[in-house]
From TrEMBL:
This is SDR family NAD(P)-dependent oxidoreductase. The keyword Oxidoreductase applies. One of its GO terms (molecular function) is oxidoreductase activity, acting on the CH-OH group of donors, NAD or NADP as acceptor. It comes from the Bacteria. Keywords: Oxidoreductase. It comes from Ectorhizobium quercum. Belongs to the short-chain dehydrogenases/reductases (SDR) family. InterPro entries: NAD(P)-bd_dom_sf, Sc_DH/Rdtase_CS, SDR_fam. PROSITE patterns: ADH_SHORT.
Length: 248
């Protein structure tokens, strides 16, 4: 039977690559995001396998309206990929905007738990799965990571807690924690600074959206008795550094 995946944030990066990969492998794909033109582009490319659902993940009414008006063939959601998210700003805490902190929390935390809560009954009924996109920033703090890292630590711990709560239901839950991957992420983070974005990835040979899509597809298609709890991945050229020490 055809399976259905709902991927939040399918207009770019990991989400768009995953929409393509799942559709190419015979899944029905619901792709979400605010940019309707991008979702229409995927619809043109992927045809009947793709349903565009345009909404802002921070708007609960819009989420509900989109879920209630799903075409019949897309109603039975087997897999929720909570991917929509963003970082805003690279400054240490005193130089940040509170509004940007609130947007990160509204998107990466409140939006993610809202859509998850609304889809839980369907996912339980279908013994489905949830894959949440956290980040290496969930585990490793870095200067300027402040609230972004905090939101991703929430995503990681929420995933593990959800898995615990869903014991006995057959629903699988996974936290995927990537390091540097070249997408629109750094453009968004820097307010559209292409030079900064290009500079960050230059010479790194970073992860690609296709790498992440392949990982998500692998997790989603493991035998039903296997659960990947959490999976951290980085490009070979990214690793760990020491603590910073301020000397007076
Ligand atoms: P992109 O900026 O390329 O894509 C982000 C996606 O999130 C877009 O589709 C965007 O859609 C969507 N999105 C953002 N805000 C909202 C909103 N308010 N409502 C609906 N959709 C929203 O970044 P990535 O593909 O890199 O990021 C995907 C996820 O991966 C994020 O959660 C990010 O934190 C995480 N991540 C990224 C890493 C990286 O190095 N790139 C590493 C680790 C984790 P639209 O703007 O159309 O609404
Ligand atoms: C994005 C990866 O290292 O820029 O989640 O925080 S990082």
């Amino acid at each position: 039977m055809t399976k259905t995946v709902l991927i939040t944030g399918a207009t770019a990066g990991f989400g768009a690559a995953s929409a393509r990969l799942f559709a190419q492998n015979g899944w029905n794909v619901i792709g979400t995001g605010r940019r309707a033109d991008r979702l229409q582009g995927l619809k043109d490319e992927l045809g009947d396998a793709f349903h565009p659902a345009v909404f802002d993940i921070t708007d609960e009414e819009a989420i509900l309206a989109a879920l209630e008006t799903l075409p019949e063939t897309f109603k039975g959601i087997d897999l929720l990929i909570n991917n929509a998210g963003l970082a805003l700003g690279t400054a240490p805490a005193p130089g940040t905007k509170l509004s940007e902190w609130k947007t990160m929390i509204a998107t990466n935390v409140t939006g993610l738990v809202t859509i998850t809560h609304h889809l839980l009954p369907t996912l339980i009924e279908r013994k489905g799965a949830v894959i949440n996109i956290a980040s290496v920033a969930a585990t490793y703090p870095y200067t300027g990571g402040n609230v972004y890292g905090g939101t991703k630590a929430f995503v990681r711990q929420f995933s593990l807690g959800l898995r615990s709560d869903l014991s006995g239901t057959g629903v699988r839950v996974t936290s995927i924690e990537p390091g540097m991957c070249e997408t629109e992420f750094t453009l968004v983070r820097t307010g559209g600074n292409k030079e900064a974005s290009d500079g960050l990835y230059r010479g790194v040979n970073p992860l690609t959206p296709a790498d992440i899509a392949g990982t998500l597809y692998w997790v989603a298609t493991l035998p039903a008795h296997m659960n990947v709890n959490a999976l951290e991945l980085m490009p070979v050229n990214q690793s760990f550094a020491g603590f910073q020490v301020f000397r007076e």
